[in-house]
Amino acid sequence: MTLGAAAAPPHGEGDSGVVVEVEEPQGPGIDFDRLSNGGLIGWRARAAGIWLGFDRAALLDSDDGSGRRVRVLVRLPASTFAGARLRVDLVGGWMTPAGPILVGQVFGGPIPVPLLARAAAGIGDGATWLEPEATRAAARRARQRYRERQSHARISGGRAWDPSGALPPELARFETPHSGPEYRLSRVPPRYLRALKDLLDDDERLLYWVERPIALEMSLRQRLRRDTDRRAAMLALTDRQLLWIVDHAQPDRYLSDWGVDVELVPIERVVATGLSRADEAVILSVRGRGGERSYRLPAEFTAEVAVMRDLIERFTPGRGGDLPRRRYRIEPSGPDVGAAARFGQEADAARLLDAAGAHGEVLAFLFSPRRPGQRHPAAMAVHPTEVEVVADGRRRQTGLDSIGVVSLTLSPLVGRLSFGAGVELTYPAPLAERAAAVVRLARKLLADAP
Fold first, then answer.
1. What superfamily does domain 17-150 belong to in CATH?
2. For residue range 132-181, what is the model confidence (pLDDT) as tens digits?
3. Residue 111 needs a FRET pair 20 to 30 A away by CA distance; which of 137, 219, 294, 346 works?
4. Residue (of 195, 211, 180) closest to 258 by Cα position
5. Tell me: domain 205-313, CATH 2.30.29.30, correct?
6. How many CB atoms lie within 10 A of CB 187?
């Protein structure tokens, strides 16, 4: 059994270089906690007895066959701390009845001594020594098992983007396959969560979000700008759409949960993005088929908005390479008879549905009854290639290929759905869930449109 020195730094995970995370520092050193901004702060000196020159770590993204990460002993010139990540060169290991234990060293560090490594690992009889090549093969198999386990753990029931459960987020992240932004949803105001619940598909995944706080204090320049918006907002990116969610009402002394206004762009329709600075703000611009939108956030969020821009760029033409394009399964939702019956206007709804059906297959239908402020009933119909509003014998329509953004108001004060070009419908707030269902179907049609 031999352990040799590394003659050159590891080049990547394809050869001997792997990344490990320290779980149990064995020697004297400093213990660190992670701050909310991602930095580290030392909080105590760690004493230790006899240190053999190894910290106990685990191979990232690995599975030893029982669901646990593969154990790795790392030879170091000084003990590190729990959570430290190191790139190490695998130089050997043991196969034990409890699974493999690998041995690694950092480049430029001391050479592992076999007897000391065995003692540090607490290895008894029955262990078989692995030469470097066999050790690297064991690491590759462990990572393959991890990827297979992750694929089987893909969420197929309930809302995939919602990590709610019995465990707190800091513990649940080790048990369920959610993204970091999904685990942080507990910080999002309930009005934004309701919008996500209404507009996201069950198997949709939330990739990133940035929240804009209420502007309680503004500079003189901001006050003089006519388009200054003090309302709180949230910019959210999923694997299917970009959503701009803004408080429906400006903040004042009577501020309450008045719902939100939402603009959404199917991610498949995004062509290019841009980032600029102006008047103490960072502006993210998104150009898509049908127009361009811009989102204004405080300048202190420049780093976060840059991350958002980079993520959106991955969906633009040319960045996906030769990967196949996603196509959605379109299932017609049919008319909501109960909504018209609630207002005693079933006959009016049937008449408008017939009028819409004369212009092609109706995939989704939203009825807006007559009521104070609206003398005549109206309806919005979604067809395979266009969206129309029919009311009082008149028809307004727009082709799916010309729609750049979908706007929706989810508020107890008013409901409004707009596809631009005058194709807009107001409806009673209790019908908001039905309106959101129409938007979900229309978004899939927009994504599939050439």
1. Inorganic pyrophosphatase (3.90.80.10)
2. 999 999 999 999 988 887 766 666 667 878 876 655 555 565 556 777 78
3. 137
4. 195
5. yes
6. 9
Q: Is residue 223 predicted with pLDDT exceeding 60?
A: no
Q: Where in the chain is the domain with CATH 3.90.80.10?
A: 17-150
Task: Please report the beta strands in 7-158, taking only residues with DSSP state E, as ranges in sequence order.
Answer: 17-24, 29-34, 40-46, 54-59, 71-75, 85-96, 99-105, 128-130
Query: Any residues with CB less than 8 A from the CB of 153 and at least 6 apart, and which?
Result: 176, 177
CB-hemisphere CA count at 13 Å for 399?
A: 6
Beta bridge partners of 417: 408, 425
Architecture in CATH of 337-448: Roll (2.30)
pLDDT of residue 7: 43
Residue 258, pLDDT above cutoff 70: yes
DSSP 173-216: TTTS---HHHHGGGGS-HHHHHHHHHHS-TT--EEEEEEEPP--
Helices (H), 314-345: 337-342
Work out whether strand 260-266 and strand 99-105 pair parallel, antiparallel, or are unpaired.
Answer: unpaired
Residue given tokens 């990827």 in the structure block = 147
Structure tokens at 266: 């199917």
Average pLDDT for residues 387-395, to the nearest whole number? 91
Q: Going by C-beta distance under 8 Å and a sequence separation of 6 or more, which residues neighbour residue 450?
A: 401
Average pLDDT, the chain: 85
What is the mean pLDDT of the segment spanning 310-319?
A: 88
Asked if residue 69 has pLDDT above 70, the reply is yes
